[in-house]
Design goal:
8-stranded antiparallel sheet, globular
């Protein structure tokens, strides 16, 4: 009976440690962004960035965006609550998608390679204002794509 109890405890400990290790898996990707851009109400300078999804039962669909060279430029951005639909193709490299209005760039999507990280960010008040100004000037908004660094 003791052997069974000990074996059961070891099995349970193994399952729990494997589960917590799986839950702590990080999905980090990197990219060089060659222009200043906005995330929410923060403006970040051009530079090398790390994008790390921080999903947990409490805070799902969040991404930490950090300038690698200047860590003081760090933002925690919450993704859109709308379900994210993965494209029906798989890329070996991820990319960032920015909306551009009158020269201002706003980060909209972080798409990692092989579904490692996929977050669509909601439009901020600043982006909505820039979009209204762009529409009133009768020029079409642009999208800019930046490839991830391998």
């Amino acid at each position: 009976m003791k052997k069974f109890t000990v074996a059961a405890l070891f099995t349970l400990a193994g399952i729990l440690s494997a589960g917590s290790a799986f839950a702590q898996t990080k999905h980090e990707v990197r990219a060089h962004v060659p222009f200043e851009f906005s995330v929410g109400d923060k403006v970040l300078p051009a530079g090398n960035y790390r994008f790390d999804e921080t999903s947990s039962p409490v805070s799902a669909n969040e991404v930490v965006i950090q300038n690698i060279d200047h860590p003081r430029y760090t933002v925690l951005a919450r993704g859109s609550d709308a379900p994210y639909v993965l494209p029906n193709y798989v890329t070996s490299r991820g990319h960032l998608v920015f909306n551009q209005y009158n020269g201002e760039h706003f980060l909209r999507e972080v798409r990692g390679p092989l579904s490692a990280i996929n977050v669509e960010l909601p439009k901020s008040k600043a982006e909505k204002g820039a979009e209204r100004n762009q529409v009133s000037s009768l020029s079409a908004p642009e999208q800019t794509t930046v490839a991830m660094v391998e």
